[in-house]
Each structure stands twice: as C-alpha cells, then as structure tokens.
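thought: fold this chain, then report.
action: predict
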Amino acid sequence: MSCMTPSRWPRGSNQAIWPVSAFLDNYFPMSEHAPLHFMPYAGGRLGPIGRHMGKALGLWPPGQFTVPATVLVIDDSEEDLKYWSNALRQFSSRYTVLESANAADALNLCASRPIDCVVLDLDMPESGFHVLLELVPDRRLPKVPVIVLTHLPHPNLFEMAKHNGAQACLLKQSTSAQDLDQAIQQAMAAVKAARSAS
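observation:
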C-alpha cells in the first residue's frame, strides 16, 4: 500500500484529512486521481466517495439530515406506555421517544429539557387535563404540541381537549403507528407556524 507523503499532497488540500483519503484510495479506487474524489480539498467540496459515504450515513445531500424530534409519551398504564413508545420507535427513526408514567414526572421532564411533542393520555390518576393546561397555558400560542391519545370514546371530551390546546385527539382502539406519526408531524408543523406568525 502506497503512502501519501507531504510532498505529494495537492496544493490547497486539507492535510488533516488527506491521509484518510489516501488510505481509502487503496481500498476504494475510482481512478488514478481517486484521492481527489474523496474529500475536503480546497473549497470543501465532496467528490463521489464523499457523497457515497454521506448518503450511507444519511448526511447527503446537504439539508436532508435532521435531528430526531423528541416525543414524550405520558400514560399511567405501563402496558400502553410501552406499546405506543415502541410503536413510534419502530415506525420511524426520526423520533427520540421518552416515557413518563405520571403527570408530575412528565411536567418536570418538560421543564428540564426541550420536548418537541407530547402524546398524552387523559385517563390518569392525576388528570390528563391538568397536564394539558400546564403545557398549553395559552392555546393560541402553544409552547409545545400536545396530542391526546386515549381509550375514552367521548366526542365531548375530544372537543374539550382541543378547546384547551390539544392539536389532535386520537382513540387508541382505532389508531395505528402511522396515524400517530402523521398526527405528530402535523401538530409540530402547526405549532411552528403559529409561533412564526406571532
């Protein structure tokens, strides 16, 4: 295997990266000038190998890489909490899913770190409405999107939840992971638009 010495570095190249480029060239030859195809030489442009590696890592094309949204699932039923948390994790890699089994811990968690969306059960020992009102004190300008996910099939309950700031209300018995994912995306977009317009 040849070694790229400093005297052979192209003018203007990133010398910290170039040895890596030379190493990869021995294993992934593309042309007699393959090192130039790899990387951050003058101008910071990516060649074919760099683009290929970027696609494999989900970092190329530029602008397509996004930080996973943090979703907090709040439900006092351990079975339901695990079910919906795992359903989201398995359905999409674009979420970091946190879990809370009670209102107090959930509110503390929301106060201690950024949360992008909350999935909230209403039927808990500490009322889910209490959590909703704490998270959305002003329904016209919500700080965080809240989606109600409950097994209680009462239209009036859903209407009341939306009146108090919930972005969407879903019935557990008839909701899929895809439905929940769609509701989360729409809720985050709606809240972002509302805050941008204010």
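thought: worth noting. The first strand starts at residue 69 and ends at 74.
final: tokens above.
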